[in-house]
């Protein structure tokens, strides 16, 4: 950049120097050189204006170079991604939710299990052994629900420990961002981490509420079975009356 500018300056000075050479009046051509102050002042002023224009051009080029540098800095991508770690943590929770036994987290499977294990009306035609077998099945489903809840809770706690390290890295990346694109990408990853933690909480609450609902339904069915067993044990009231 400097070489063309230097050539322009030297060329301007050369032209100015050529213009500064005074012209001898017609009556002094044979009597020596005559100095013309007004012409000299005009040439100096012209040279100064030419130099100012060159300086303005240099400043404009410097401003354009600075603008391009800033644009490149703001468009620089963030060389860090937390997507893999966030996705892996969510997959662990999803796997545990899919492994739910008893009543799974699926609408069709839930409807079928509720119809079979927790009917709307107690079937009084069941034998005692069938009542006991159903009670054991419901108890096993309730215990499976609580076990699955504790597994999900344990996985969430493990993920929280990993999230603490990831959060520190994301904050560091955000603070050291050199451009708007890097800052925006770091912010987006922080938002993704927050959304992932919210999803974990929702899944943990779903598992917890499922276990509690299973236990309440089991208790209700147990009460219905107890009433039926009591009725069968007591029998008809007529056998306790005399004619």
From TrEMBL:
Residues 44-78 form a coiled coil. Keywords: Coiled coil, Signal. The keyword Coiled coil applies. Residues 1-28 form the signal peptide. The keyword Signal applies. This is P-type conjugative transfer protein TrbJ. The gene is trbJ.
């Amino acid at each position: 950049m400097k070489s063309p500018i230097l050539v322009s300056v030297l060329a301007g000075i050369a032209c100015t120097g050529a213009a500064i050479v005074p012209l001898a009046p017609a009556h002094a051509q044979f009597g020596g050189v005559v100095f013309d102050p007004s012409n000299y002042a005009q040439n100096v002023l012209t040279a100064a204006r030419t130099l100012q224009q060159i300086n303005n051009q240099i400043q404009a080029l410097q401003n354009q170079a600075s603008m391009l540098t800033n644009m490149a800095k703001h468009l620089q991508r963030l060389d860090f991604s937390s997507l893999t770690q966030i996705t892996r943590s969510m997959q662990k929770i999803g796997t545990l939710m899919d492994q739910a036994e008893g009543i799974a987290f699926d609408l069709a499977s839930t409807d079928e299990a509720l119809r079979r294990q927790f009917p709307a009306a107690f079937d009084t035609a069941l034998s005692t052994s069938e009542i006991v077998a159903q009670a054991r099945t419901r108890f096993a489903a309730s215990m499976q629900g609580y076990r699955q809840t504790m597994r999900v809770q344990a996985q969430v706690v493990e993920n929280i420990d990993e999230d603490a390290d990831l959060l520190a890295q994301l904050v560091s990346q955000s603070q050291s961002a050199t451009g708007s694109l890097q800052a925006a990408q770091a912010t987006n990853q922080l938002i993704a981490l927050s959304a992932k933690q919210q999803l974990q909480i929702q899944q943990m609450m779903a598992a917890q509420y499922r276990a509690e609902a299973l236990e309440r339904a089991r208790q209700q069915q147990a009460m219905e079975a107890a009433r039926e067993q009591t009725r069968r044990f007591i029998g008809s009231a007529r056998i306790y009356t005399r004619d």
